[in-house]
């Protein structure tokens, strides 16, 4: 018999669960071309299931010229041959479901590839049926672009097209023209894509650059950000960070479209959407608007914990700001993904990686919100150093050497230390496998109970037994000096306390109310109470719980 609680768990799994991001190009190559594929994902789903994750997010595998490695889609409803066939995707879906894993796919709809049939028709002339499907604008009298908007990947966000003798908008590469969401037909076409994959059986979507869908119809100039300003998620070497992006993204019109999208997704109960809030002037406010409960996205993540700032105070400020802003909305948290340097290197913790990696993931999974783990993060992989001659990322090539791009976090997954290319491929991989990654291969870590992988696996499974960590509210405990961070997750009648030592040296913390809490075990961390004083080794944690009697209702 299915109870109300069972039904709730089936539909609200996204609040309770852990999402594991797979970057297909670098997961596992099964056909010997040096590039990962869908069959490789199917072959290694047992790794994700054993880890304890509840869902996989698969980065783009659609037909694409790969100028931006799949984020330039030429056909939203077909599989790129390098990744396999639609039958291969169906196999991934079926095998994931057999293992109790849900499958989220990347939905890239703010822009397309210039090779998409929609753009080919749109750029043909100014009168064709799709003439207004993209953002076109006349030149200024002097021939320059219509305004000062910048591309995140460098230079103006406008490119001249000789056929139409107009500029078209692209927030990223010139080969990634932006769709015009002010056009109702575009919205309907995008919703048709969503419907196609829902009917195929996917469990949801990760929405790429979800705040980039709409632009200001009047094409007003963005103002300068002002001295000392910084756009979250953009390196200082990129002039994109000099503007306050008021008019080229995060527009209010987006809210109504997200509501349409939510209504469609809700026709398939149990599906969910996680939105990426790309570099934004008000990440917390945008997340609050986008995740208003039951109206738009189920959850969203930003770049606030994906930057270079690392301290107990910073993490607390970010989490408290978001928690206060979003109310009954729901965040998703990540410390690594395919767009930023791996967290162990980005936060300069390489010297302590074996202890810091499981601690950071335990902290991530203790925050209010849905944690997302990026492939290799469970191994404690550091950022790979890619020489310029092997660099693939156009973003990195544009801003080298100050910003080396994203290839360092996209190198192949190391599976078997003794095998060629760490078991990723029998051919030369599209990016090299660093020795430091080979030394942290799955084959080595899975046999070691003290490895990063084993400790992360233990914590994820333990988290499943802790409702407060999944659904509880959050508050931070005051008068706790850095590098210690103390937070509490709250459910009616229950408080779960977590204390993290984010530094390498042993620390102690006086907890006057310690005797009212019962220490918890099974999570794999070594903090211990000595009377009312907590003793924490470097990069370690402590968990305890207090149950409180509830007053009976009259």
Q: Could you explain how this protein is built, in words?
A:
The chain is of the alpha/beta class and 554 residues long. It has 17 helices and 21 strands. It has helices at 4-11, 13-16, 38-43, 45-51, 86-98, 117-122, 184-200, 254-265, 283-290, 312-326, 343-346, 353-364, 394-399, 435-438, 442-445, 452-463, 467-471; strands at residues 19-22, 55-58, 62-63, 75-79, 102-107, 136-137, 158-161, 166-169, 204-207, 272-276, 299-301, 332-333, 370-374, 473-476, 484-491, 494-501, 507-510, 518-519, 528-530, 533-536, 541-547. Strand 19 (528-530) and strand 20 form a beta hairpin. The longest helix has 17 residues, at 184-200. The protein is globular and about 80 Å long.
List the helices and strands and how they pair.
Blueprint: H1 4-11, H2 13-16, E1 19-22, H3 38-43, H4 45-51, E2 55-58, E3 62-63, E4 75-79, H5 86-98, E5 102-107, H6 117-122, E6 136-137, E7 158-161, E8 166-169, H7 184-200, E9 204-207, H8 254-265, E10 272-276, H9 283-290, E11 299-301, H10 312-326, E12 332-333, H11 343-346, H12 353-364, E13 370-374, H13 394-399, H14 435-438, H15 442-445, H16 452-463, H17 467-471, E14 473-476, E15 484-491, E16 494-501, E17 507-510, E18 518-519, E19 528-530, E20 533-536, E21 541-547
Parallel strand pairs: 1-2, 1-13, 2-5, 5-9, 9-10, 10-11, 12-13
Antiparallel strand pairs: 3-4, 6-8, 7-8, 14-15, 15-16, 16-21, 17-20, 18-21, 19-20
Helix pairs in contact: 7-8, 9-10, 12-16
Report low-confidence residues grouped into runs of 5 or more.
1-7, 550-554
* Helicity range: 25-40%
| Proportion of beta-strand residues | 15-25%
Going across the major beta sheet, what is the strand order? 11-10-9-5-2-1-13-12
Shape: globular
Instruction: Please tally the helical runs, counting DSSP H or I stretches of 4 or more residues.
Output: 17
Distance between the termini: 31 Å
Largest sheet: 8 strands, parallel
Number of strands: 21
Mean pLDDT: 95
Radius of gyration: 24 Å
User: Helix/strand-derived class?
Assistant: alpha/beta
């Amino acid at each position: 018999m299915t109870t109300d609680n069972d039904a709730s768990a089936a539909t609200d799994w996204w609040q309770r669960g852990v999402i594991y991001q797979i970057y297909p190009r670098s997961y596992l190559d099964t056909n010997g071309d040096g590039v990962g594929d869908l069959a490789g994902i199917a072959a290694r789903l047992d790794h994700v299931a054993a880890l304890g994750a509840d869902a996989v997010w698969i980065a783009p595998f659609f037909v694409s010229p790969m100028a931006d490695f799949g984020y330039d889609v030429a056909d939203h409803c077909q599989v790129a041959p390098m990744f396999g066939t639609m039958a291969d995707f169906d196999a991934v879906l079926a095998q994931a479901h057999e293992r109790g894993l849900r499958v989220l796919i990347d939905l890239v709809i703010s822009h397309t590839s210039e090779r998409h049939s929609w753009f080919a028709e749109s750029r043909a002339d100014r009168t064709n049926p799709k003439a207004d499907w993209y953002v076109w604008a006349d030149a200024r009298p002097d021939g320059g672009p219509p305004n000062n908007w910048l591309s995140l990947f460098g230079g103006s966000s406008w490119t001249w097209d000789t056929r139409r003798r107009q500029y078209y908008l692209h927030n990223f590469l010139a080969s990634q023209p932006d769709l015009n969401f002010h056009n109702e037909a575009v919205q309907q076409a995008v919703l048709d894509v969503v419907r196609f994959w829902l009917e195929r059986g996917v469990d949801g979507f990760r929405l790429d650059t979800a705040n980039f869908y709409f632009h200001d119809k009047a094409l007003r100039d963005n103002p300068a950000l002002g001295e000392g300003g910084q756009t979250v998620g953009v390196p200082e070497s990129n002039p994109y960070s000099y503007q306050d992006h008021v008019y080229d993204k995060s527009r209010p019109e987006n809210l109504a479209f997200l509501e349409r999208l939510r209504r469609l997704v809700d026709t398939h109960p149990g599906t969910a959407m996680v939105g990426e809030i790309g570099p934004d002037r008000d990440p917390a406010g945008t997340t609050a608007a986008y995740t208003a409960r039951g109206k738009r996205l189920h959850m969203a993540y930003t770049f606030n914990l994906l930057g270079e700032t690392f301290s107990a105070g910073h993490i607390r400020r970010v989490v408290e700001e978001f928690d206060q802003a979003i109310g009954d909305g729901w965040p998703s948290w990540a410390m690594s993904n395919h767009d930023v340097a791996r967290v162990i290197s980005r936060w300069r913790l390489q010297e302590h990686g074996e202890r810091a990696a499981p601690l950071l993931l335990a902290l991530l999974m203790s925050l209010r919100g849905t944690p997302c783990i990026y492939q290799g993060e469970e191994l404690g992989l550091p950022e790979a150093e890619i020489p310029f001659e092997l660099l693939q990322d156009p973003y990195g090539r544009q801003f080298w050497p100050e910003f080396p791009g994203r290839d360092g976090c996209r190198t192949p997954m190391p599976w078997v230390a003794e095998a060629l290319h760490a078991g990723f491929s029998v051919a030369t991989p599209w990016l090299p496998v660093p020795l430091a990654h080979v030394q942290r291969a799955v084959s080595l870590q899975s046999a070691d109970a003290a490895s990063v992988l084993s400790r992360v696996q233990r914590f994820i499974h333990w988290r499943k037994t802790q409702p407060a960590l999944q659904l509880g509210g959050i508050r931070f405990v005051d008068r706790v000096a850095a590098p210690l961070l103390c937070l509490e997750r709250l459910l009616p009648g229950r408080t779960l306390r977590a204390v993290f030592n984010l530094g390498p040296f042993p620390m102690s913390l006086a907890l006057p109310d310690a005797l009212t809490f019962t220490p918890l075990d099974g999570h794999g961390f070594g903090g211990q109470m000595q009377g009312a004083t907590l003793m924490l080794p470097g990069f370690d944690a402590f968990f305890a719980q207090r149950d409180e009697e509830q007053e009976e209702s009259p």
